[in-house]
Amino acid sequence: MLTIPSFSTLGLAEPLLRALADKNYTEPSPIQAQAIPHLLDGRDLLGCAQTGTGKTAAFALPILHRLSKHPPVRMARRPGVLVLTPTRELAAQIGESFAHYGKYLPFRHTVIFGGVGQNPQVRALREGVDIVVATPGRLLDLAEQGCIDLSGVGVFVLDEADRMLDMGFAPDVKRVMARLPERRQSLLFSATMPGPILEIANRLLHDPVKVEVVPASSTADKVVQHVCHVDRGDKPDLLAHTIHSHAGGLVLVFSRTKHGANKLVKKLGQNRIAASAIHGNKSQTARERALEDFRSGKVRVLVATDIAARGIDVKGVSLVINYDLPNEPESYVHRIGRTARAGADGLAIAFCDPDERVYLRDIERLIRIDVPVMSDHPYALATPNLHQLGGGGSKGRGGSAGRGGPRRSGSAPVRDMGGMASNNAPNRPRNRFRSSRRAGGR
Prior knowledge:
This protein is α/β, with parallel strands linked by helices. Helix content is 33%, strand content 14%. Helix 13 links the parallel strand 12 and strand 13.
């Protein structure tokens, strides 16, 4: 009989167990159960887990346990723990986790990111903090100004490493690593493990334990996936149609560009759908306000670009819509991971225009699933055979192969999106791709 561990059996300090009990957390998630014992022993760790699996607690709890057992001598501008993460939202979320789990411990932490004035951050560092959670750009700015000294870091966490690379932070990550002391405990977490991540891991980690709770290319088990083939020009109307047809829960929409996200918010408003946008051109205050309005349900629809994807941890997201398919298939996994969190069910619908069909083919190769086609909507195109598409043209551009099927009437019957008919069988593994290279051989 399989024994399910509890937090009380992992050897965590009593103040942490009390904080976990306050949140009714009794059983660790798989990555927490596997990672925490090794981290308590001081081992370096390479963790592979998709978003929403509880990896923040997997590293936050051992760090706080270490501080409780060996209180550091607090020094101005010289933190003992550094957590590096790609986005402001994710940095703020990790900071909140440390505050929740460490509520009964006398430690200090601060969160450092751009888009806001640096004076409060500099002041916190001058007064002395034990833990710093930071994004790379602002951290390096403060380091170059002499506001923070990383030579005393005893624990370093590189979180969402694959997203760091996607966002072009690899040089900054290496500059941060160069400022760290040789003797330290290092942790690297990533949802996927492409070659560049393993290269960084080899430089960063010493004799690491590897913890992998799910294959890097898998999508959340409880996410029901569909794809709608649609003309590019019909996407705005299909978006409004889909949201109106999906009666309950919060809706997260992914746009490829910041300008596109703003246009979608305006278009949804014209269809009497309240929406906000969150992307890199928004001020931190505007991003926090949009996220809070979404979290509280004041705004039901949030339109986001990938830069904000990893920092959106909101309960109640029942539908994720990929308005634009990502040209990197790993991003699809991260996006739909915003729903079906903490054991809940979720629905993910992708809009695919003819020029995006190669992106869809790459996604299906990565996740090894034929995404069922949803054709019961007013803007459906004929279903193409993705595997007969050529690779002509620029990278990721599929031309218009398979285009031009008959449109359904605008009065086509609509059922709840969670139970719409599709012309494919339910998601199931596709044997012929099991040995193929990920992402279409990229």
